[in-house]
Amino acid sequence: MTGTLLNGGSCIKLGDAGVLLQTADAVFHFSPDNVAKHVICNSWMKGKGWTPEDKSGGYPFNANNQFELQWIAEPNNTVKINVDRIFWKRFSREDLSGVVQLDFSYAIRISSIKLCRADEIPTTTTTVTPTTPPPDVPCPYFSLKLDLEIPIAINLENGFKPGKHITIIGTPTDYFPDFVVGLGEPGIMRETANVLFSFSPQLNSKSVTVNTLLTGIGWETELTYGHSPFKVGEPFVLEIKAGLNNQIEVFVNYVAYLRFTRHDLSKVSQIQIIRAVKVCSIVTCY
């Protein structure tokens, strides 16, 4: 996870199912304080409250308060903690097998989160308010990006294949008459890269246009869908899912909106978002 420590103490917790600090144990509590220059590691358990504080290891965060923090699960309920890709300490106290949630509070701003398998620990920094995906589309590994500025370009890696899906939470603005979400192959979108899915809500006509752009050929046949659910100033949840046989499925506010099939999506490597939209978060599941 990447982010910035604000002034004072902050809390990051791993918890079991339920309401943290009420019906759910916080089995790992990590609390850096950039004023006191210490980090508290402990836990909160039902019927017991807070366990003893561990402040060992010094203060690992840099002076500008920006960080890249890795928590790596190890045997025997141990959490290995790296700060800015440098090992800091290990912490082990409670049973971690029931962990289902990650919670942030107080003086901290999170920019991105990535959950990955042990063999996929990121070696480069990844640069989404999270939503609950439909139950038929699990999201065991994901990348979360928050408060992004337009234009947005995000690496999707390894094609848009079944099992992958993208959830975008945003709000249309009135800066342009439309906004565009595009999936493309490697290169510069709309210049050297094929755009294999261009989804463009038309905010004035209340329709959505869908098309593809191939280098050397140009735009292909445009499709128009009516009854657009996108309105200026009204938040939306847009889900783009990879189906079988290069089919793209689009849901808006958890309701199926369209299906689109045209080209091979195996080389799709990026998503681009431009024009009249403010994006709060993007979750890419793979």
TrEMBL record:
<dbReference type="GO" id="GO:0030246">
    <property type="term" value="F:carbohydrate binding"/>
</dbReference>
<dbReference type="InterPro" id="IPR013320">
    <property type="entry name" value="ConA-like_dom_sf"/>
</dbReference>
<dbReference type="Pfam" id="PF00337">
    <property type="entry name" value="Gal-bind_lectin"/>
</dbReference>
<feature type="domain" description="Galectin">
    <location>
        <begin position="1"/>
        <end position="116"/>
    </location>
</feature>
<keyword id="KW-0430">Lectin</keyword>
<dbReference type="InterPro" id="IPR044156">
    <property type="entry name" value="Galectin-like"/>
</dbReference>
<protein>
    <recommendedName>
        <fullName>Galectin</fullName>
    </recommendedName>
</protein>
<dbReference type="InterPro" id="IPR001079">
    <property type="entry name" value="Galectin_CRD"/>
</dbReference>
<feature type="domain" description="Galectin">
    <location>
        <begin position="152"/>
        <end position="286"/>
    </location>
</feature>
